[in-house]
Amino acid sequence: MFLMTAVFAVLFAALCFATTGTAQALADVDGSALSIGAARVLVGGGLLGVIALVALLRRRRRPRSDRARRDGGVPSGAVPSWVVIVVGALGVLAYQPTFFAGTRLNGVAIGTVVALGSAPVFTGILNAAIRRSRPTSRWAVATAVALAGVVLVSGVAGNGSGQQIAPVGILASLGAGASYAVYAIASKLLLDREWSTSASMGAVFGVASVFSVPVLLSTSLAWLTTTEGVLLVLWLGVVTIVVAYLLFGWGLKRLAPTTVASLTLAEPLVATLLGLIVLRETLSAPAIVGLIIMAVGLTILTLPTRRKGFVRDTATS
After folding, report:
1. Quick count: other Cβ atoms within 10 Å of Cβ 243?
2. pLDDT given at position 163
3. Distance CA 100, CA 94 (A)
4. Domain limits of the chain?
5. What does pTM read for this prediction?
6. Interior CA angle at 251 toward 96 and 40, to 5°?
7. pLDDT at position 71, please?
8. Which of 19, 87, 131, 173 is deepest in the core (most CB within 10 A)?
């Protein structure tokens, strides 16, 4: 039951993530993908950074023996935590423009599906290489089924979306998937060292917010002077970063990063539905079948099982 709560936390985070592309499309601001992404990280990451600082101050007020028991240590020979944080922050920063570029070039449905569809694959590779944790059989089956649906929805095979696919947009979305894997694994490494959810998420996104300042200032900020621009940044910062990543981190602490990455395939599923219903985007019959297949894959991953290892991180259990 406890693991299922973590699963639902990640799924709810994915619902928050799913509104990103649709919110951008509805706002229809004259801002570049780089500018919008940097502003999103600045607001959301800054707020998470403040939350992390508050958590740190509270921890320092605890008795010393209690702090030592909770904080854990860095394993001998391990990469210093500050390096992990910087790498994770760079992953966060890289994700923003690549994700928004992908959705802008190929639409919310295709851009989101390709970005999040590729994320579990990249995460599985990095998790095996860095944390020496092999994906489970159940994860492999569920992810394979879900990715089959991703291919149909994205239109990569046979142009199932009924629109012309921009190769540059596909590359941008794949870059977003790889960037996601980088900061997910970085965050998991911090959690492995007994960092709290707020501290790990706040550290990675807080540093990313600092990195985003010069990036944002290098772009045109005219769109931020509009009501639509301000509301867009607030939504993206508060809902799709602060709320979403606190839930995401809580689930990531208790589940394998590969499982979490696969669960976030709920994002393209919901984002596609939002694109169809809210933005009036169109999908062909094969793409609709793909949505159903994606749902089946997620169901396989989330069904209760006696073998908790299917969803729990065997490297840290």
Report:
1. 16
2. 60
3. 11
4. 2-59+79-310
5. 0.79
6. 20
7. 47
8. 173
